Amino acid sequence: MSSSSHSSSSSSSSSIIGAAWRSVVVVLEVVVVLVIVVVVIIIVIVVVVVVVVVVVLVKVVVVVAVEIVVVAVVVKIIAVVVVVVVVVVVVVVVVVVVVVVEVVVVEAVVVVVVVVAVVVKIIAVVVVIVLAVYK
After folding, report:
1. Contact by Cβ (8 Å): 68, 62
2. Within 13 A of 76's CA, how many CA atoms are on the CB side?
3. What transmembrane ranges does the database entry give (predicted)?
4. What is the block-wise mean pLDDT of the chain (135 residues), using blocks of 10 residues?
5. Quick one: CA torsion of 84, 88, 89, 95, rounded to 10 degrees?
6. What is the DSSP string of the chain?
7. What was the pLDDT predicted at 16?
8. Are 88 and 35 within one domain?
């Protein structure tokens, strides 16, 4: 009698632990998505600020400099390098975040892949329809 009550309390506690673990996983998934969104927003803000600063610098340098063409080309090259570096940093941050939390967001990744596949199929159908109309 006592052993059966012990086993039922053990199974109920394990189901409680399982439910608690699933809720922790859901909370972690939400936190990870929020962190990714915040990081992307911060990176976009940084890119916008960098572009504005570079544009202002280009205008100031073009007005002040004697060799306008050389300085403008150098500033444009610097701007391109800055944008490339920011894009690389964004990609690296996203890859690192995805790799680190891959175990937690496997379901989310599967959903994203399915959504992307559906969007690609819709785009393919639209392209086929447009090509058929214009032939």
Report:
1. yes
2. 7
3. 30-58, 70-103, 109-134
4. 51 73 79 84 85 77 62 75 79 71 61 80 88 78
5. 160
6. -HHHHHHHHHHHHHHHHHHHHHHHHHHHHHHHHHHHHHHHHHHHHHHHHHHHHHHHHHHHHHHH-SSHHHHHHHHHHHHHHHHHHHHHHHHHHHHHHHHHTTTTTHHHHHHHHHHHHHHHHHHHHHHHHHHHHH-
7. 77
8. yes
The residue assigned the tokens 């911060």 is 42
- One domain, residues 93 and 44: yes
The answer to whether residues 81 and 50 belong to one domain is: yes
Residue 79 counted as domain residue: yes
pLDDT of 25 reads: 80
